[in-house]
Design brief:
This protein has about 130 residues and is α+β, with helices and mostly antiparallel strands. It is built from three helices and six strands. A hairpin with a 4-residue loop joins strand 2 and strand 3.
C-alpha cells in the first residue's frame, strides 16, 4: 500500500498543463503541479537565466517570485498583496502589482483553476515584455 501511495504522489508532480501559455515557450522549461485547492507552476527561461515561480491556492492566495539565476538575485516577490522589488531598472513592476492586486480582489467566488489560469496569463504577458526589453 505504501509503494502505491508513493507512486500516486509521484504521478501528481510536474504534470503538463497544455492550456498554459508557458507550455509553448521556446528555450524554457515549464512544470505544473496541482495542489490542494490550487496549483503551482515553475518556468525556467534559459536565454535570460530567469526563473519564475507562481502559485495560487485558496489558503495561501497568490504568490509570485521572479529571480535571476546568473548572478542569483530575487528581482520581484509578491505574496498575496505584499511585494518586494529588487531590480534597478523599471520593468513595469508597478503595473504588475496592480494586475495581481486586481486578480486578488476577484478571487472570491471563483474556481481556483480559473484564478490560476488568469495568473499565468498575467505573468506570461509580463515575462514576454520583460524578455523583450
Amino acid at each position: 500500500m505504501r509503494i502505491w501511495c508513493k507512486g500516486m504522489a509521484r504521478n501528481r508532480l510536474n504534470k503538463e498543463n497544455p492550456d498554459s501559455p508557458f507550455a509553448a515557450l521556446d528555450h524554457s522549461d515549464y512544470s505544473y503541479t496541482p495542489e490542494y485547492l490550487g496549483a503551482k507552476g515553475i518556468v525556467n527561461i534559459h536565454p535570460q537565466a530567469l526563473a519564475l515561480h507562481m502559485s495560487y491556492s485558496v489558503r495561501d492566495g497568490i504568490c509570485v517570485k521572479l529571480k535571476r539565476n546568473r548572478p542569483y538575485r530575487v528581482l520581484f516577490d509578491y505574496v498575496d498583496g505584499a511585494y518586494y522589488t529588487n531590480d534597478d531598472s523599471d520593468r513595469g513592476y508597478a503595473h504588475l502589482v496592480e494586475q495581481l492586486s486586481a486578480l486578488k480582489e476577484q478571487t472570491k467566488g471563483r474556481h481556483y483553476e480559473t484564478v490560476y489560469q488568469n495568473l499565468e496569463e498575467i505573468m506570461f504577458e509580463f515575462v514576454a515584455d520583460f524578455c523583450n526589453r
